[in-house]
Amino acid sequence: xxxxxxxxxxxxxxxxxxxxxxxxxxxxxxxxxxxxxxxxxxxxxxxxxxxxxxxxxxxxxxxxxxxxxxxxxxxxxxxxxxxxxxxxxxxxxxxxxxxxxxxxxxxxxxxxxxxxxxxxxxxxxxxxxxxxxxxxxxxxxxxxxxxxxxxxxxxxxxxxxxxxxxxxxxxxxxxxxxxxxxxxxxxxxxxxxxxxxxxxxxxxxxxxxxxxxxxxxxxxxxxxxxxxxxxxxxxxxxxxxxxxxxxxxxxxxxxxxxxxxxxxxxxxxxxxxxxxxxxxxxxxxxxxxxxxxxxxxxxxxxxxxxxxxxxxxxxxxxxxxx
Length: 322
Known about the structure:
Radius of gyration: 19 Å
Helix content: over 70%
Number of helices: 14
Distance between the termini: 45 Å
Order of helices and strands: HHHHHHHHHHHHHH
């Protein structure tokens, strides 16, 4: 009998599990980068989207996909891209107005919000179980609000808006997902989002200077390096690696793994930023309830297949399966 050795290569499924968890860990760092970068939310998001779009433009498949799209379909995806830009703007706005833990917890609300929004926008049958899940998250929201300083509560409101935007554009993407090449869709959406943020910069800076700011101001060396890390290490690298991993695992296993993103973000925020000193036990109790709902969702609604995993690039809250 051949003795057991540790050099036995992992199976494709086991390797895929390691890869997807590494991707989720990298996505968890997006909130940390958002807190560390000193730019306000709008220029931060503008530079991140611009860097990602610039990289995608180097891929020939993107150009072939764009050439195959009708003008009407391109306009529809560009409209969704506006929602994507507003989602990222409010996500990082929540982090700036509160902290990374609050932003990550609020974005977890996208799962119960999607359960309520998707039937109307994507033409799916309404589910009473999902309505109950959405209601079950409300005590968690109340505890989160009560567990942060009053100065952070505007950040919670902005973060909840970000989660709602995820639910809306994720549902619209699902409705149109079969009509365009995913890489072309991602490039088009992020490109349209970059343009819209350019137009929004002046009025938003006047209305809410905490979120606005000129996107044309070059970041300093520190912020520039952090932006490159955010765009390359937390967007393009997991974007590419997840495409490989999701071909060797079930959608159910993948969704459970991606649901860990806010957990990783909260833990990283405590370890790297010491945010636990800013928050009370009520916050973490509320976060636990919200995350419990997030993990219960795929248990009650097991996804059947992975649909267009390339669209992972457009959200902090990852919804990868039907």
